[in-house]
Amino acid sequence: MAIKIKPADTWFSKCIRQASKWTCERCGSVHEPGSMGLHCSHVFSRRHRTIRWCKENAQALCFSCHQWYGGNPVDSGAWVENEIGEGVIMVLREKMNLRIRVSKLEEKEIARHYKQQYENLLAGATDFDSWQ
User: Fold this and answer.
1) d(CA 57, CA 53)
2) Helix (H) or strand (E) run with residue 104 in it
């Protein structure tokens, strides 16, 4: 079953890709803004709604690196641990296991938050605030 892409996902993804300057965080390939060649890849699956929109749970990966990441769990796990650190992974796991429900209303707030963050990035900000 495919996970439905919501406005909060769209704006979050735009923030991740814009903050990376449209550059793959693994191989360094540069993509045109708005390109479909650069993806917002999640460390832990988007199905975990407690961390679905958490900045530390995502990275900008090109199509090829995203395929590698999903198809090589041992190597990609070691790579991501090296990139973000064991401590961040432990915090993400703790948040992931919380039994908190994200309401539809809250999803709209998340979308608004990331839309504003994206506009800030376009205006010259070099980083953005995570909703979670």
Assistant:
1) 8
2) helix 104-122
Q: Global pTM?
A: 0.93
Q: Token digits for 36?
A: 């479909």
- C-beta of residue 27 within 8 angstroms of C-beta of residue 20: no
Please report, for the chain, the start and end positions of each structural domain, with discontinuous segments joined by +: 20-122
Work out the pLDDT band at 1, boundaries 50, 70, 90.
low
- Other Cβ atoms less than 10 A from the Cβ of 9: the count is 19
Half-sphere exposure of 130 (CA within 13 A, CB side): 12
Cα torsion angle, 75, 79, 85, 88, sign: negative
The amino acid that residue 102 corresponds to is: V
